[in-house]
């Protein structure tokens, strides 16, 4: 570091005590360095007194607007999770264990009321099937009853993002729900699952996925046999 | 406090000082505004890496200097060869004062950018040598030498005008 640079550093207070003492001693015998020190001091004062350039009007507002625009999340940030969620739903609605959970929950919900919330009341399978036909749902041949349970009525119930035909059977021995689930469910022929004490049995018939739900596995088995008999008879 | 509110408290108060430094680096208002805008956008995006309550001013000047270096590199120019394009900020005061300030502003602007930036950060933005070393990413000795050289060039220009 040259003597001149050390004088600059002295003016700016950038030297430690020993260096400062050394440069101050140097200044005593060097009028040129003393002149430099004074000139630099005056220059520094002059620079500090210069007016600060002001941004053009509206700059701060434009700056804040561009920051706000940068903060705004891009569409992709919404679209990617949305696409992932849709994919997950599409995948889940075909998983039998997930659909079993949905129908078991709906069975409990409907039968927890003092009266099932049917929209069509009849013990005649033809009347119930005709009601669904009118709404655009082709029903498999419904049994009148089995295991001492009889047909009570039916309605559409929401299962996630879709509506399933929900047929109610009841009797002194228990109750049973028969669901016709729209859309593909990955069941080869039959599938059984226990969900919260409800027995769920899936079967594929006439291109439809049917789910039978009851608290009693015997009732489900009896209905399953009856259902298979009535389908075979219809053929 | 939200990230936005913290940025507002820590970074935005430096907007005008950043602009003043950017103006003296670039020599014209449009480039200075672009420089400050890009600096604050980068600062906002990197705000998670900033520790609140530490030296926001030095952090922002460091980003400012990097943005400036990147811009010059894109244009294939080095900081030492920047042309200055207008007459500088308006000067108020008596005629003698105004002339002296205009001369000083002109002399500052005539200094090559690498020296000028060191002088601006020290004398106008009041950064310490250590802070300037961080901002410019150079050793302390280089800071000392650039400030000395920058001031010497200004003094030489001013004494040439007096003669």
List keywords for this structure.
heterodimer; A: 235 residues; 3 domains; eight-stranded antiparallel sheet; 23% strand; B: 163 residues; mainly alpha; Rna Polymerase Sigma Factor, Chain: A; Arc Repressor Mutant, subunit A; 2 domains
Brief description of this entry?
Chain A has helices at residues 3-11, 17-28, 31-49, 59-71, 75-92, 96-111, 125-135, 217-234; strands at 120-121, 145-146, 149-159, 162-171, 174-181, 190-195, 198-205, 208-214. With 235 residues, chain A is α+β, with helices and mostly antiparallel strands.
What do these coordinates show?
- The complex is a heterodimer of chains A (235) and B (163).
- In chain A, strand 4 (162-171) and strand 5 form a beta hairpin.
- Chain A folds into three domains: 3-49, no CATH class; 58-92; 96-234, Protein Transport Mog1p, Chain A, CATH 3.40.1000.
- The termini of chain A are far apart.
- The mean pLDDT of chain A is 88.
- With 235 residues, chain A is α+β, with helices and mostly antiparallel strands.
- Helices cover 49% and strands 23% of the residues of chain A.
- In chain A, helix 1 (3-11) crosses helix 2 (17-28) and helix 1 (3-11) packs across helix 3.
- In chain A, strands 1, 2, 3, 4, 5, 6, 7 and 8 form an eight-stranded antiparallel sheet that branches.
- Chain A has eight helices and eight strands; from the N terminus they run H-H-H-H-H-H-E-H-E-E-E-E-E-E-E-H.
- Chain B is mostly helical and 163 residues long.
- Chain B has two domains: 1-78, Rna Polymerase Sigma Factor, Chain: A, CATH 1.10.1740; 93-163, Winged helix-like DNA-binding domain superfamily/Winged helix DNA-binding domain (Arc Repressor Mutant, subunit A, Orthogonal Bundle).
- In chain B, 71% of the residues lie in helices and 0% in strands.
- In chain B, helix 2 (15-26) packs parallel to helix 4 (56-74).
- The radius of gyration of chain B is 17 Å and the shape is globular.
């Amino acid at each position: 570091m040259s003597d001149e640079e050390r004088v600059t550093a002295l003016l700016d207070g950038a030297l430690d005590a020993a260096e400062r003492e050394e440069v101050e001693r140097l200044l005593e015998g060097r009028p040129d360095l003393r002149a430099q020190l004074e000139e630099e001091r005056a220059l520094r004062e002059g620079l500090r007194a210069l007016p600060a350039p002001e941004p053009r009007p509206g700059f701060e507002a434009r700056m804040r607007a561009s920051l706000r625009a940068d903060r705004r999340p891009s569409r992709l940030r919404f679209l990617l999770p949305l696409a992932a969620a849709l994919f997950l739903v599409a995948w889940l609605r075909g998983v039998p264990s997930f659909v079993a959970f949905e129908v078991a929950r709906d069975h409990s919900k409907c039968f927890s009321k003092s009266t099932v919330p049917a929209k069509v009341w009849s013990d005649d399978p033809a009347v119930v099937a005709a009601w669904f036909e009118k709404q655009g749902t082709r029903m498999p041949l419904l049994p009148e009853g089995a295991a001492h349970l009889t047909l009570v009525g039916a309605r559409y119930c929401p299962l996630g993002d879709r509506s399933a035909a929900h047929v109610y059977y009841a009797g002194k021995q228990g109750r049973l729900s028969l669901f016709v689930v729209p859309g593909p469910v990955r069941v080869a022929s039959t599938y059984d699952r226990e969900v919260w004490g409800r027995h769920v049995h899936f079967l594929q018939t006439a291109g439809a996925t049917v789910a039978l739900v009851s608290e009693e596995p015997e009732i489900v088995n009896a209905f399953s046999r009856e259902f298979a008999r009535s389908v075979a008879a219809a053929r | 406090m939200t990230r936005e509110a913290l940025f507002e408290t820590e970074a935005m108060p430096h907007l005008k000082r950043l602009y003043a430094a950017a103006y003296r680096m670039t020599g014209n208002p449009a480039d200075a505004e672009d420089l400050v805008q890009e600096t604050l956008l980068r600062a906002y995006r990197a705000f998670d890496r900033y520790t609140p309550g530490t030296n926001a001013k030095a952090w922002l000047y460091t980003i400012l200097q990097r943005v400036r270096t990147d811009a010059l590199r894109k244009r294939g120019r080095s900081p030492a060869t920047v042309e200055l394009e207008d007459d500088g900020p308006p000067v108020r005061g008596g005629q003698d004062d105004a002339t002296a300030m205009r001369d000083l502003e002109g002399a500052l602007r005539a200094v090559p950018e690498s020296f000028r930036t060191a002088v601006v950060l020290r004398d106008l933005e009041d950064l310490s040598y250590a802070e300037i070393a961080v901002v410019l990413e150079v050793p302390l000795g280089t800071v000392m030498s650039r400030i000395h050289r920058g001031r010497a060039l200004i003094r030489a220009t001013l004494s040439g005008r007096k003669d």
